[in-house]
Write a structure and sequence with these properties.
The mean pLDDT is 83. The chain has a five-stranded mixed sheet. The protein folds into two domains: 69 residues, no CATH class; 153 residues, OmpA-like domain (60s Ribosomal Protein L30, Chain: A), CATH 3.30.1330. Helix 6 links the parallel strand 3 and strand 4. The protein is elongated, with a radius of gyration of 30 Å. With 238 residues, the chain is α+β, with helices and mostly antiparallel strands. The chain is 53% helix and 13% strand.
Length: 238
């Protein structure tokens, strides 16, 4: 009997607790509702009579609109930042851009510097030439003032290579991208910002049937990546 009585008492206590936590404190709810109404400038009442939205839906709508406004502001600031970076690279590399050896463009991914491999490397080699070192050093000084990640991608034409150092175009394109990354590190860019990628003869920008086309396909691209607006908002950066 004692055990049975204890069991019934415990069950009673359990249901009392369950009832207690399931009850809504109407007074606290109204205080919270009033605070949200005041914060978002909506009128108190039973909802938006014009749209049929409840108070809770109005609050969530206001939260979403506020977040979207912040995202838009971050995106605009980021685009202005990328535009300034593009203009700085164009100004510093104007002589090469005018010769067609380089091009600077701004796209959805960020700012891309496209460099003809002939001005960076000897044919079939991945060691940077002296003029390339000087030019890329200027680029590195500009990039060092930023904090966005940087991708360096190497491309070749479709002519095969088979040397002890480079058994295929994969090794050659990767080594060329790595040479540029190493120079950037020497000039002060942090390693976590950098990535080297080799594409071999994939993704050509011109036909490989002509010498001119193959020359265009032998290139290195340096892309400063723009952060998605959501990431910029989460990081709290402008």
């Amino acid at each position: 009997m004692v055990s049975y009585a204890d069991f019934i008492t415990l069950l009673f206590a359990f249901f009392v607790v369950m009832y207690g936590i399931s009850s809504v404190n109407e007074g606290k709810y109204k205080v919270f509702s009033g605070s949200m109404t005041k914060a978002f400038g909506t009128k108190a009442g039973n909802g938006d009579q014009g749209t049929g939205l409840s108070e809770e839906e109005i609050y969530f709508k206001a939260l979403i609109e506020r977040r979207n406004a912040r995202l838009a502001e971050k995106y605009i600031k980021q685009q202005e930042r990328m535009k300034r970076l593009s203009e700085a690279l164009n100004s510093k590399l104007a002589s090469f851009v005018n010769k067609g050896a380089m091009s600077v463009s701004q796209n959805d991914r960020g700012v891309t510097l496209d460099i003809n491999a002939s001005m960076l490397f000897q044919q079939g080699d991945a060691s940077l030439q002296p003029v390339a070192v000087a030019t890329l050093t200027d680029v590195a000084k500009i990039l060092a003032q930023e904090e966005m990640p940087v991708e360096v991608e190497g491309y070749t034409d479709n002519l095969p290579i088979a040397t002890a150092q480079f058994p295929s175009n994969w090794e050659l394109s990767s080594a060329r991208a790595s040479s540029v990354v190493r120079l950037f590190i020497e000039q002060g860019l942090t390693t976590e910002r950098l990535k080297a990628i080799g594409h071999a003869d994939n993704d050509p920008v011109a036909t490989n049937d002509t010498a001119e086309g193959r020359a265009r396909n032998r290139r290195v691209t340096v892309t400063v990546l723009a952060a998605p607006p959501e990431a910029a908002l989460a990081d709290g950066r402008n």
